[in-house]
Amino acid sequence: MYIIVLGGTFSSLAQQGQSSVHGKITDNDGLPISYANVYFKELDKGALSDGKGAFVVEGLPRGNHQLLVSHIGFGKRTVQVALKSGERKDLGKIVLFENGSDLQEVIVSDRKVNRFADKATEYVARMPLENLENPQVYSVVNKELLQEQVLTDIDQSVRNATGVVPVVYPSGGFAATFRGFNIGINSRNGMETSTGRSSVDIGNVERIEVLKGPSGTLFGSNVSSFGGVVNLVTKKPTEDKQTEIGYTTGSFNLHRITADINTPLTRDKKTLFRLNTALNRQKSFLDYGFNNTFLIAPSLKHIASDRLSLTLDAELFDAKSTRTLYSRYGTNSGITSPEDLLIDYNKVLFHEDANASTSSLKLFTQAQYRLAANWTSTTLFSYVEEDVDHSYQYYATWLSPGLAARNIGNWGPIYNSYTNIQENINGEFATGTVRHKMLVGASLRFMDARSEAATSGFIDTVDVTTDFRVLRKQELDPYMVAGNWPGWHRANDNTYSVYVSDVLELTDRLSTMLSLRLDHFSRPDNGAVEGYEQTSLAPKLGLVYQLVKEQVSVFGNYMNGFQNQAPANQPDGALLVLDPLYAEQAEGGVKAEVFDKRLTATISYYHIAIDNAVRTNADGFVEQDGRQVSKGGDFEVVANPIAGLNIVGGYAFNDNRIVKASDEDIEGNKAVGAPENVANLWLSYALQGKLKGLGIGVGGNYVDENYLFSDNVVAVPSYTLLNASIFFEQPSWRLGLKGNNLANEKYWSSYGVAQAPANFAANLTVRF
Questions:
Q1: Which of 5, 159, 384, 399 has a Cα-to-Cα distance from 472 of 20 to 30 A?
Q2: Nearest 5°: CA angle at 302, between 299 and 308?
Q3: Is-contact 428 435, C-beta < 8 A?
Q4: Cα→Cα distances 26→23, 34, 90, 305, Å
């Protein structure tokens, strides 16, 4: 039963011996929040705050209870309340932060429980929805875990998410593979971004969210793959004044300096500013190669009124680096694995002066307006620009384990821009006994791509078992010839979308999610390439039943997704225009958050069917000719069994196969780059006594073998990585030392590229 409190009055339900609580709900600027939900869910008792933010809840039994405080447009807080018989407890001021500024669910106690398990997010469902209420599976990697592991790059960071394997493209971009499909980091704070050629720095990352399964219903096909979505949540300004400076050094001449400066700009703390920056310099473990990057990311938040807040952030990323070698394998080469190659593990075919220079600019604005007590309007604008000045990319066709035909390509200048405008209306209401959480939205997306025709050329054939010459840029340039399309090329497309999602709480245990998205995709003619238009619907249905309220739920979902495919550049210079892909997923599983959230776990099984499947054949040509089925299961656990001990682990099984193709010989084969078994584990323990903050961590990853091409001849071998760290965390400083690949295992990426041997990194961070 709710107890509605308005104008500072309330209806007393107190009985003899029963207790009550009272307090005030405010935002982070100290302004009262009216009509906030204050609810003891296990007792079915609660209230709404009045116009001054005040609330009272009476008729409470003695004991330990959880009070959930929430309001649409704000994050949620959970307060542990211990009551004696007949006690009237003053909870004081309870602060709710607007979504995006503080998304952590806070347990008010003398310590933080299970610090790696927080799954509170506004992005996964585009509405405030608890993990146990959400019929979709997702993983969250927070900055605390990244810091404990002394991580400096995105590829090692995503390995902490269940079933995720990092992929670095030969073009320089970054992607992740899970559930049998590749996807770039295409979402940033829920809006489209791009890491196709310039990769990404984690210096401005608050956490990484990995949504599993076709997610085009809410995110759109331009952002998601049929495996899911990777969403980066950036650091936001807060009202605290704090500066954090970090320095990391390590193997391969690693030097990295980071700064995080947060400060209010006004005394009333209505204008907040934060600046994150990172300077990174590192050589490759190979004879030649480097990765030099610079990130600067300012953000600003202004509280215009008790209803309106404005947010602006920008990110400028500059990268100069060398690309990885892309290998092809001759039909009669006799090669079945990259480990068959006779080239030394740390040898290269090209010098680092044939490198790449890229940059990206990302702008994001948000205006959030409280329309009414339970209704919020969020207007978003984002602009992403990715520029390639030049990008020398290396190719080798292996004629035998010791003989390679060297080729070189230079891509650029290339200019890609993505403009997105989005409007979301969130609200809560009731129809009879059914409560609704509603999202209605629309978005406009405009893409503009311009590129200079690539140049490329065959150089020579080299015996890698001899003391061969590493080719320098000045030797490569004379071999460059223009591609099939001299001059500039321009392509653009537009997408217009509307979507709606309704979560219906049918009972206090049973809820359903109904979502639908309509996209109209338009691509005009581009020279000889005929344009096309397409309108598609993507429905989503989810069911959740809580077997144990607020602790264990069973769920199921059905999702339909589609992807409009960009034309593919073929190895012979031809352009293949691809049709859209379609996918359907059915999934079911169990989620648990038990023992006061000391143990959170998810287990699920899924089945994804793809039509118009795209594959790469053994000659490196893209083909679209069949049907593909990906099925498997995920298991994830995040636990804090005793004080100081934290466990993050996951196991994913995936069977992704080509079930129909024009080439009958490959029917039944495994899909490219889809390992069957992937596991991750991280155990850490921090002392709780006199040396509180001193701790150790140990863990690693296992990735099964996967195939480079759809003929399933050349396989990347499986590998196991063992990592460990030691750290000392104090309020004003932190020291960490991390060892990676301690077993010094030779292993290759899903593109067959050799990866770093045993290495270390040491970090010192100071806060003031």
A1: 399
A2: 130
A3: yes
A4: 10, 9, 15, 13
Do the beta carbons of residue 750 and residue 177 sit within 8 Å? yes
- Give the H/E segment covering residue 145: helix 143-148
Do 177 and 201 touch, CB atoms closer than 8 A?
Answer: no
| Chain-centre distance for alpha carbon 453 | 32
Convert the pLDDT of each residue in 328-379 to its tens digit. Answer: 998 899 999 999 999 999 999 999 999 999 999 999 999 999 998 889 999 9
In angstroms, the CA 356 to CA 91 distance is 58
Q: Classify the phi-psi angles of 93: left when phi > 0, otherwise alpha if psi is within -120 to 50, otherwise beta.
A: beta
Burial class (CB in 10 A: 0-12, 13-18, 19+), 490: exposed
The helix (H) or strand (E) run that includes residue 255 is strand 254-264
Task: Kindly report the pTM of this predicted structure.
Answer: 0.83
Say what the pLDDT of residue 17 is: 56
Cross-strand pairs, 584: 560, 609
As given in the structure block, the two tokens for residue 535 are: 């309108």
Q: How confident is the model at residue 217 (pLDDT cuts 50, 70, 90)?
A: low
Give CA–CA dist 540/126, Å, rounded.
14
Contacts 24+ apart (CB under 8 A), 261-264: 262/237, 262/238, 264/239
H or E element in which residue 551 lies: none
Mean predicted lDDT score pLDDT of the chain: 87
Q: Each residue of 673-720: pLDDT tens digit?
A: 999 999 999 999 999 888 889 999 999 999 999 999 989 999 999 999
Nearest-10 Cα torsion for 93, 97, 101, 105: 90
Q: For the chain, give the percent of residues with pLDDT over 70.
A: 92
- Per-residue pLDDT reduced to its tens digit, 646-681: 999 999 999 999 998 878 888 999 999 999 999 999
Per-residue pLDDT tens digits for 452-502: 766 777 899 999 999 999 999 999 988 887 654 444 566 788 899 999 999
CA neighbor of 762 nearest in space, from 276, 143, 247: 247
Q: Which residues of 187-205 are buried (b: 16+ CB within 10 A; e: fewer)?
A: bbbbbbbbbbbbbbbbbbb
Report the SS3 class of residue 160: helix
Determine the 3-state secondary structure of 666 from DSSP.
Answer: helix
Note whether 45 and 57 are within 8 A (CB): yes
pLDDT at 251 over 70: yes
Q: Above 90 in pLDDT, residue 620? A: no
CA–CA–CA angle 724, 729, 735 (5° rounding) = 60
Does residue 504 carry a pLDDT above 70? yes
Best CA proximity match to 295, nearest among 202, 364, 387: 202
Phi, psi of 194 (to 5 degrees): -150, 140
Closest CA relative to residue 631, chosen from 662, 659, 660, 650 = 659
Distance of CA 60 to CAs 16, 68, 120, 288, Å? Answer: 11, 15, 27, 69
Mention every residue, 6+ apart, whose C-beta is less than 8 A from residue 689.
Answer: none
Query: How high is the pLDDT of residue 14?
Result: 37
Helix or strand run (H / E) with residue 144: helix 143-148
Half-sphere exposure of 538 (CA within 13 A, CB side): 32
With a CB cutoff of 8 Å and minimum separation 6, the contacts of 636 are: 139, 162, 601, 602, 603, 649, 650
Task: For 473, list phi and psi in degrees, rounded to 5.
Answer: -55, -40
> In this predicted model, what pLDDT tens digit does every residue of 290-323 receive, in sequence order?
999 999 999 999 999 988 999 999 999 999 999 9
Helix, strand or coil, per DSSP, at residue 544: strand
What is the C-alpha to C-alpha distance for residues 704 and 699, in angstroms, rounded to an integer? 17
Q: Which of 588, 590, 586, 587 is nearest to 553 (CA)?
A: 590
Query: Residues 545, 509: contact at Cβ < 8 Å?
Result: yes
Q: Average pLDDT in the 155-175 region?
A: 92
